[in-house]
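batch job 7 of whatever, protein = Nitrogen fixation protein FixH
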Amino acid sequence: MSDSQTASTPPRAWWHERMMWLVVGGPAAVVCASFLTLGMAIKHPDPVIETQQRVSADSAADGPQAAALAPAIAARNHAATGGPASGK
């Protein structure tokens, strides 16, 4: 094309450019999908399923499973505090 041909054609509006829709359309679709997912998560939350009985350190020391749970409790306390494990 010569300069005389480009000067005679009027510039196209931004919504007529295909590359603009390619650049903006992808992220816009992701944002719309994230709002749709958020709406579904708020409307239909997953129920909490209790599969095991929760055991605290105090109740484990008194119960019949105290010997079996002692290493796990000592490791948990060590991970939480950073102190030495006393379950040996």
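notes: The mean pLDDT is 79.
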